[in-house]
Design a protein that fits this description.
CATH superfamily: Endonuclease/exonuclease/phosphatase
Order of helices and strands: EHHEEEEHEEHEHHEEEEEE
CATH class: Alpha Beta
């Protein structure tokens, strides 16, 4: 089974460019998770009859955030957002930027043997004003996935807006303490590992040079001066079933590229 994740930074834009259609035709994901769709279902013309679409769009601001799952196999159930009881337990409330749990950021789809959860993690902001929210978000989402994991394994994917280690960005030195590479955000990633999840890409590749996001400035993508902030994490019980984990840096159309895992579920 091939599962892909891509922050498209506007689904209508990548469809208009033709890059989305080409990507799906070439890669044929069984499950495709999208972040930053910036649209509601029906606002983008998508001719993919072999897929069933599940969308979670921002309730607070149109054309903002948004996630989606396109699946060839019908899931048993689909749930949007972090359940309110878990959000409340971990203090996840609205801040000066709004309610992060009502912006279409999370979708959980249940299948026979596992859950797929995709999410677009809030940005800490240049002035780090959203670090408290990030800590609440990380705690709530990790707890949610750990709760699901108690029932069956979880495949978690999405734009986590953090480089976990110094190997996950081209220039760690000058970025220490800045958004996406603060100790608080990196500790939030550590908590996923402590909760029984594994970073699938690092099962196959070590070291620097593997990135999923590049700035639009200074020809960063061509020079591969980027950050690895898009991930697939899986429950440890699925670790041996992960046959590959890839970064598809050749797929253009967004400032992020797709990432994928292939699972052998036999």
């Amino acid at each position: 089974m091939k599962i892909y994740s891509w922050n498209v930074n506007g689904i209508r834009a990548v469809i208009k460019k033709g890059t989305f259609q080409t990507f799906v035709a070439e890669h044929q994901p069984d499950i495709l998770c999208l972040q930053e769709t910036k649209a509601e279902q029906g606002q983008a013309v998508i001719d993919l009859p072999e897929y069933t679409e599940y969308w979670n769009s921002s309730q607070a601001k149109k054309g903002y955030i948004g996630t989606a799952i396109f699946s060839k196999q019908l899931p048993l159930s689909v749930v949007n957002d972090i359940p309110e009881d878990i959000a409340k337990t971990h203090g996840l409330v609205a801040d000066g930027y709004g309610s992060s749990n009502h912006e279409g950021r999370v979708i959980a789809a249940e299948y026979d043997d596992f859950y797929v959860v995709t999410a677009y993690t809030p940005n800490a902001k240049d002035d780090l004003s959203r670090i408290p929210l990030r800590q609440q978000w990380d705690a709530a989402l990790t707890a949610y996935c750990a709760q699901l994991q108690a029932n069956k394994p979880v495949v978690y994917c999405g734009d986590m807006n953090v480089a976990h280690t110094e190997d996950d960005l081209a220039n760690p030195g000058p970025n220490k303490g800045k958004k996406g590479f603060t100790s608080e955000e990196r500790a939030g990633f550590d908590n996923w590992l402590a909760a029984g999840f594994v970073d699938t890409f690092r099962l196959f590749q070590q070291g620097k040079g593997y990135y999923t996001w590049w700035s639009h400035f200074a020809n960063a993508r061509a020079r591969n001066v980027g950050w690895r902030i898009d991930y697939f994490l899986v429950s440890n019980t699925l670790k041996d079933k992960v046959k590959s984990a890839e970064i598809h840096a050749d797929v253009l159309g967004s400032d992020h590229c797709p990432v994928s895992v292939t699972l052998d579920l036999k």
